[in-house]
Amino acid sequence: MTSQKCVALIAHDQKKDDIAAFAKANEAVLARWKIVATGTTGGRVQDACPSLDVIRMKSGPLGGDQQIGALIATGEVHMLIFFTDPLTAMPHDVDVKALMRLATVYDIPMALNRATAEQLIDFHHP
Description:
Layout: E1 6-11, H1 16-25, H2 27-30, E2 34-37, H3 39-48, E3 54-56, H4 64-73, E4 79-83, H5 93-105, E5 110-111, H6 114-123
Parallel strand pairs: 1-2, 1-4, 2-3, 4-5
Helix pairs in contact: 1-3, 4-5
């Protein structure tokens, strides 16, 4: 395991523009982190911030949430930023809940909206 801190970035479909804008606004800080993301979110962040090295997992519904959950369980992810959409039903809701449960069990900082993400990213400079 590397000593560089790792942040996971995930966003539901209706929040992908928001997470791309968040990444762009915090690009200099995120550049100091190892970044993992679910597939589509990672692509959107990479498009908004070409200077960032984003490791893309599978799309969330196709196992990406579970891949990131495994990284949390092995201690490889140190912070989770997951922009959720509380107004849209998710077919893979059980995966989302499992991911949030793992972040809680392993006691890593977790933001579910931009306001909290801004606080975490300011506080947890690697």
